[in-house]
Amino acid sequence: MEDALIIRNNEYDMKDFDHINSHNKKLMYQREFIQVPDRMLVKRMIYPEGNMITNHEHHCAHGDFVLKGTMHTNVGDFGPGDFVWFKEGYKMYHGATDEEVDVLYMTNKPLDMVYYDEPYSHDSDDSNSAIILPKDSYDMKEYPHANSKTKKTLYQKFFVEDEETGATIKRIIYPAGCMIPWHTHTCNHGFYVLKGKLVTNVGDFGPGDFVWFKAGTKMYHGADKEDVDVLFMSDAKVDINYL
């Protein structure tokens, strides 16, 4: 991989990435963005109407940020902007019912699947095994953060800080003019742009674009003339070293 991996939303069609689920044999679509060896996987997935991934578990923690549609799970239904994270080994089901659902999917470790045939109902849910963050359950302006270098205020809401790997997922809003100057991280990390234009040393990125930086890469990023709203993910604990 080069120092930065760039995947622009308008340069691929999800329908070119068809996948047949090994258990229910139904068609879905998935576009892998990045798989760090022995670490984080990030991919975009579309579940067509009626495609439910039946009772299963993973030997990794993992979660979904819903981009479009409603994702049905054993811990509730989630719409655009909602986030749900399942702890490792938690038995679950999820997918689409009466409409297509488009999600950004992330793990803390490589993905596997273990299926179960017995029924599983809402009555046996253990909500302590899932982190649930509907978009209307928090206000980003309640999570200000002063950048240690520039002292400018940005907003960040931590979704996940994984105890085992340090993998971090958070939502960040860079207000107009808030630029993080040249720096490096010792973790691999990336951005999925939700709204606005993310300005970086490797180009500008709009809604639906994904950019992933290799650990140790020299970079800058932030907002120019408009606010930018991004989902940030790293495969290990985040640090920052200014140049």
From TrEMBL:
Pfam families: Cupin_2. Residues 173-226 form the Cupin type-2 domain. It comes from the Bacteria. Gene3D superfamilies: Jelly Rolls (2.60.120.10). This is Cupin domain-containing protein. It comes from Absicoccus intestinalis.
